[in-house]
Prior knowledge:
Arc Repressor Mutant, 3 helices, mainly alpha, single chain
Amino acid sequence: MKATEFDKRFDNSEDVIEFLDLSKASRPGLGKKSVRIDFPARMINGIDQEAKRLGLDRQSLLEVWVEEKLKQSSEY
């Protein structure tokens, strides 16, 4: 199928998923990269308590908090 035909079908809200090779699809910027951060023990205890209260693990909670803070920033 030519790109013009694909675009026409897409623009007409037709289902075009069958024409895509999703095995090679990716979403840029979602790859993981490790960082090491040292916190005082009292902060770790507080983070762990809050994570437990919310039903999250420590890393997930920290990711949520950092994401929230970054969204407040005009740079994000």
